[in-house]
Amino acid sequence: MDVKQCFDEIEMLDKEEFHQKILRGVAATSEFSALVSVGTKFLTEEQKKNICEQLEQAGIPAKYEPSPRFDEDLRDVGWYIAGRAVQVR
User: Fold this and answer.
1) Which of 61, 88, 58, 59 lies closest to 74 in space, CA to CA?
2) How many CB atoms lie within 10 A of CB 53?
3) What tens digit of pLDDT does each residue of 56-78 get?
4) Alpha-carbon distance 82 to 76, whole Å?
5) pTM here?
6) Three-class HEC string of 24-77
7) Which residues have CB under 8 Å from 13's CB, separation 6+?
8) CB count, 10 Å around CB of 40?
């Protein structure tokens, strides 16, 4: 997963797109809530894959590619989305 590219795509979404695609989509799931609150530690591989698929459907290139850094990268993307959500009003 290219975290920088994910960040860039998240930033390019205007307020309405971010709200519709991200906040009402992937961020509304219990899996995403767990990701931003406790990280990937308690998520199954299937849940991580689902989060990535939902992000990709929203236009964020978060490919599910298990690697040594994958959990950290997914967590960082989740936290970035949470940070952007606080800014969107």
Assistant:
1) 61
2) 14
3) 999 999 999 989 999 999 999 99
4) 10
5) 0.91
6) CCHHHCHHHHHHHHHCCCCCCHHHHHHHHHHHHHCCCCCCCCCCCCHHHHHHHH
7) 21, 22, 59
8) 19
